[in-house]
Design brief:
One of its GO terms (molecular function) is DNA-binding transcription factor activity. This protein has 279 residues and is of the alpha+beta class. It is built from 11 helices and 9 strands.
């Protein structure tokens, strides 16, 4: 059993005692801050300014500048002195190249993105779940001349925001969904009333019925998206394929066509991922 059915079957409550609280690790705060800054720099392919990083990190300007400078000294970041922006450095490239061999999802997904873009004319994407967020990994442009640029490589959205996050969230265990949507006031304040937990839950129910998620211009008016989850060997949704474009291209009658194409490609990748390893 694969896909949503397998995931729903796996959502049975599990017994067992709660794990003991982890002891604080010396230096963990610094590691957490470094990881946060690296994520923020990677969100924009054009680079991030010091002011933007300070704003989004919540850290003081001297702290951010000190950490960024230290990361640059290690080759993890580069600083563009002309544009005053920060970018990933050569060591990040090396690490990514080495790590890529352990995570072949991009290689598996690329043909599906090409087929989706060619068959629909829309832009096609692969996103991965990272904790409470989705991160866009790959983009394949379609032939339709008018495009949406809400989604691009490196951009992050909370689960439940954007079609990829909706598609993944819909097939997580209910307790996990409840935990992710617990901070209702902060979520709605950041993303607007259209992303209230009640609205998200209604969209999740529709997604469970059809198998694919629809984002009807909730992030940017007129910019629509649709997504379908990809499931790992344990039946959990870990990635999603999505299509984005302008509202007239996502009329109800075409949604069914686009949705089925997304489900077919997501199922193709899921089946490959769930094959037993060759020994």
């Amino acid at each position: 059993m694969t896909g949503p059915s397998a995931t729903r079957a796996a959502q049975k409550a599990r017994g067992g005692q709660p794990a003991p609280l982890a002891q604080p690790v010396q230096g963990a705060q610094v590691v957490g801050r470094v990881a946060l800054l690296l994520r923020l720099v990677g969100q924009n392919s054009l680079g991030a300014s010091l002011a933007e990083i300070v704003r989004d990190s919540g850290l003081t300007r001297p702290t951010v500048h000190r950490l960024l400078t230290s990361l640059a000294a290690e080759g993890l970041l580069d600083h563009d002195a002309v544009r005053h922006t920060w970018h990933y450095g050569p060591e990040i490239f090396v690490m990514g190249t080495v790590a890529a061999a352990r995570y072949p999802i991009e290689e598996l997904a690329r043909p599906s993105l090409v087929r989706l873009a060619e068959e629909t004319g829309e832009s096609a994407f692969l996103s991965i779940r990272r904790g409470a967020e989705t991160v866009c990994l790959l983009r394949e442009e379609g032939s339709f001349p008018i495009r949406s640029f809400v989604l691009y490589e490196g951009v992050r959205f909370p689960l439940g925001v954007a079609s990829a996050g909706l598609a993944i969230l819909a097939f997580l265990p209910e307790a996990e969904v409840d935990a992710l949507l617990a901070d209702t006031e902060a979520f709605a304040a950041r993303w607007g009333g259209q992303h209230s937990p009640a609205s998200i839950r209604a969209n999740l129910e529709r997604t469970r019925v059809t198998g694919y998620a629809v984002n009807p211009g909730l992030i940017l008016e007129g910019s629509w998206g649709m997504g379908a989850a990809i499931f790992d060997r344990s039946g959990r949704p870990g990635w999603a394929l999505s299509l984005t474009g302008i509202e007239p291209r996502f009329k109800p009658e075409r949604q069914k066509i686009l949705g089925q194409l997304l489900l077919d490609e997501a199922s193709r990748i899921t089946q490959t991922l769930q094959r037993p390893p060759i020994v």
